[in-house]
Amino acid sequence: MTSLSGKIAIVTGASRGIGRSVAEQLGAAGATVVCVARGENAALTATAIRESGGQAESHGVDVTDAAGVETLVAGVLERHGRIDILVSNAGIARDQLMLRMKRADWDEVIATNLTAAFTWCQAVLKPMIRQRTGRIVAISSVVGQMGNAGQANYAASKAGLIGFCKALAREVASRQVTVNVVAPGLIATDMTRTITASAKGDWSTQIPLGRMGTPEDVAAAVRFLASDEASYITGQVLAVNGGMYM
Ligand SMILES: NC(=O)c1ccc[n+]([C@@H]2O[C@H](COP(=O)([O-])OP(=O)(O)OC[C@H]3O[C@@H](n4cnc5c(N)ncnc54)[C@H](OP(=O)(O)O)[C@@H]3O)[C@@H](O)[C@H]2O)c1
């Protein structure tokens, strides 16, 4: 495994699912991981990393609270002096067909999945540019690439992330800061737990590799993009979807 020793990494949505696995893999690779979720939710992830011999801290921040994000990033800089990796992973779904979708569900999904990525990136960019190195990885979705009925808000947020990251990648490439996207397919987490067994069956026929993905499948891709080995990769969308969308 590539070493991330000495790197300071922030992972949003680190309390469970994909974000927890990303935090654990970055921690296992030697990074000091700043685990973010609401309230005390990310504490167990940080504890697990420390119990495995890694370094981690946890913070309760709502990613839609711009002032809270800025305070947290300032604190990380004060304590560690640098920020090498940002994984913008926190996300929600509020599914509904368009005709029934409430404006509040649109706003909440765009604020959490897209606007929060803007806030986090703006907060970490200055130190990364100053350092002349940095890795930003945003978690989009196959739904942002191919659409999905009942997820107009979610698809818009995830497609928006792709455009956002490509634009940002071009802005900061000259400072050796890379910005990439990982687009997972159907991954077994709390977010997909409520999909009925028959719907999961329908989905699995559309996945050439014949199974749902695991958080670990996604985390491995993130860990690679966050490493020095990925220094010549920027503005890319790495699909981790079992071949569901090619
Ligand atoms: N599962 C899939 O099939 C799939 C597929 C494609 C893309 N994705 C994307 O992958 C990412 C992770 O999804 P997941 O499946 O791991 O979901 P999950 O198990 O539901 O976890 C979501 C994470 O986001 C955090 N979060 C949500 N809203 C937040 C907020 N306002 N402030 C701070 N943290 C917040 C949650 O923390 P709290 O403890 O604070 O709730 C939790 O850690 C999301 O962006 C999702 O859209 C998932």
Describe the structure.
The chain is an alpha/beta fold. The chain has a single domain, classed as NAD(P)-binding Rossmann-like Domain (Rossmann fold, 3-Layer(aba) Sandwich), CATH 3.40.50. The chain is built from nine helices and seven strands. A seven-stranded parallel beta sheet has the order 3-2-1-4-5-6-7, with helices on both faces. α1 packs parallel to α2, α1 packs across α9 and α4 runs parallel beside α6. The longest helix has 29 residues. It starts with 7 loop residues before the first strand and ends in a 6-residue tail after the last strand. The model has no long low-confidence stretch (mean pLDDT 96). Bound molecules: NADP nicotinamide-adenine-dinucleotide phosphate. NADP nicotinamide-adenine-dinucleotide phosphate binds next to α1 and α7.
